[in-house]
Amino acid sequence: MKRAAMFFVVVFLLLFGATKVLSQGKSSAISVKGSELNNGVVIVTVVREGKEYELQCNEGTSNCTQLKTGKYQMVELPKNMGMYDCRDVQIYSDGADPAIAKRIGEYCLTDK
Questions:
Q1: Spatial CB neighbours of 61, under 8 Å, sequence gap ≥ 6
Q2: What domain count does the chain have?
Q3: What does the mean pLDDT of the chain come to?
C-alpha cells in the first residue's frame, strides 16, 4: 500500500513539474524601443535578435503596461495559453527567472 501511494505522489510531482515547464514557453532577451497608447491599445515596439516586433494589449486589462525603454525578458507562450488569442507573450525584468519572477505584462506579439 505504501509503495502504491508513493508511486502516485512521484507521478503527480513529475506531471506537475512537466506542466509548469511546458507552460513557460520560449524565453528570449528583448530591448524596448518605445511605447505608445493608440485608441485604447498599448503598442510597444521591441527588438529581438535584430528584428523589430510590436507587443499589443488593451489598456485597462490586467498586465497591460506601457513599458519603459530598456532591456527585458520575453517568454512566448505555447499556442492556446495566456489571455490573448494570438502569439501571447509575457514580459519580465531583464535577467529574471520567469519561473519565480513577477510578470510585468502580457501582450500579443506581432511582426512589424
A1: 83
A2: 1
A3: 83
